[in-house]
Design a protein that fits this description.
The structure is a single chain. α7 runs parallel beside α8. The radius of gyration is 17 Å and the shape is globular. Helices cover 42% and strands 16% of the residues. It contains twelve helices and ten strands. The strands form two sheets. An eight-stranded parallel beta barrel has the order 1-2-3-6-7-8-9-10, surrounded by six helices. Strands 4-5 form a two-stranded antiparallel sheet. The protein has 274 residues and is α/β, with parallel strands linked by helices. The protein has a single domain, classed as Aldolase class I (TIM Barrel). The structure holds ribulose-5-phosphate (5RP). Ribulose-5-phosphate binds next to α10. The site of ribulose-5-phosphate has 12 residues, from α10.
C-alpha cells in the first residue's frame, strides 16, 4: 500500500491498473512478439486488441504494438502496462540477455500507466536484468510511474515456491510495485512474503479453459491481485468467453464451474483470433 503524498502519482497510476474497488486486475498480456515475432492469436493484433480490450482492465504490451494496433478511438480507454525490456529473440536459446528498450520519456509520452521489465533470476544474465529493473525503477519512480517486474527463473530451475519466491522477493526489494510470476504450490506463502507488493500471475503456454481457470481461481484464493494472462486467452477458440470467465473469477470470486458456464454461454459464434 502506498500511503505517502509524495507517491500520489504512483498511487494514481496503480489505481488505474489495479481497481481500488476490489484490489484486483485482469491484465491482458500481448507482448509476446517482442521476442517471438508473429505469434498465434497476435498476428493480426489490431483485431485481437479490438476484440478483447473491452473485457480487460489493463493491456500489457509494447511500444510498437500500441502505436500500430490500438484504434484511435480506443486510445486511453484502458491503462497500458508498457514492456520496456527486450533485445533478444527466440532464435537464441538464452533469452535472458535483455536490456532496457524504451526510455522513461517515451513511456510518459505514451501515457503508460506502468512499465514492465523482465528479470531472469539464476540465468547467465541475472545481474544485468536486475540492474535493468533498478535502473528503470530509478527513472520511473521519479515521474510517479510504477514498475512491474516480470520474473523468470533460469532454465534449470523448477518453477516452484523456492525459486519463484526468490525471484519475486528480489524484485520487490529492488522496488517493483507489482510482481508478475508463475503460480506454484503453496502460492499463498509467496504472496505473503512479498506483501504488500501486488502479485499477478502469468498464464504460461496454452492449456485448456478449465485448467487456466483453475490456475486463476487458485491464484486469487491464495491472495494474488489478479492475472496477467496471454496465450490462454488469445489462443483459445472462444477468446471473449475466456476473458469474461477469467474476469468473473478475478472480480466476482466465481468458481471454475461458474466461470465455465460464462465461457460456454459465449461459445456459439465464437471466433478464433489469428
Ligand atoms: C513473457 C511475458 C509475457 O507477457 C507473459 O508471460 C506471457 O503471458 P502468457 O504466458 O500468459 O502467454 O511477460 O516474458
Amino acid at each position: 500500500m502506498v500511503n505517502s503524498y509524495l507517491d500520489i502519482g504512483v498511487q494514481s497510476r496503480m489505481n488505474r491498473i489495479i481497481s481500488p474497488k476490489d484490489n484486483r486486475v485482469v491484465m491482458l498480456a500481448i507482448d509476446h512478439p517482442y521476442f517471438q515475432g508473429p505469434t498465434t492469436g497476435l498476428r493480426n493484433m489490431s483485431v485481437t486488441i479490438k476484440t478483447l480490450l473491452p473485457y480487460c482492465d489493463c493491456l500489457m504490451t509494447t511500444r510498437g504494438a500500441v502505436r500500430a494496433n490500438i484504434a484511435p478511438e480506443d486510445v486511453g480507454s484502458k491503462p497500458i502496462m508498457l514492456r520496456v525490456s527486450g533485445g533478444n529473440s527466440v532464435l537464441f536459446e538464452e533469452l535472458s540477455d535483455e536490456k532496457l528498450t524504451v526510455t522513461i520519456r517515451d513511456a510518459i509520452r505514451m501515457d503508460a500507466a506502468g512499465v514492465a521489465v523482465s528479470v531472469f533470476i539464476g540465468s547467465a544474465n541475472q545481474q544485468q536484468t536486475i540492474l535493468n529493473l533498478t535502473d528503470m525503477i530509478n527513472s520511473a519512480e521519479e515521474y510517479g510511474i510504477p514498475v512491474l517486474a516480470v520474473t523468470a527463473v533460469g532454465k534449470n530451475m523448477a518453477r516452484d515456491l523456492r525459486y519463484l519466491a526468490l525471484a519475486s522477493r528480489i524484485c520487490q526489494d529492488a522496488g517493483a510495485r507489482i510482481v508478475k510470476t508463475y503460480y506454484c504450490e503453496e502460492f499463498s506463502k509467496l504472496v505473503d512474503w512479498v506483501a504488500p507488493t501486488a502479485v499477478v500471475v502469468a498464464g504460461g503456454k496454452y492449456s485448456s479453459p478449465p485448467d487456466a481457470m483453475k490456475m486463476a481461481y487458485d491464484s486469487i484464493q491464495a491472495g494474488a491481485a489478479g492475472v496477467d494472462f496471454g496465450r490462454n486467452i488469445f489462443q483459445d477458440k472462444n477468446p471473449v468467453g475466456m476473458i469474461k470467465a477469467i474476469g468473473s473469477i478475478v472480480h466476482g470470486n466465481h468458481t471454475v464451474k461458474e466461470a465455465m458456464d460464462i465461457y460456454n454461454s459465449c461459445l456459439p459464434g465464437a471466433t478464433k483470433l489469428d
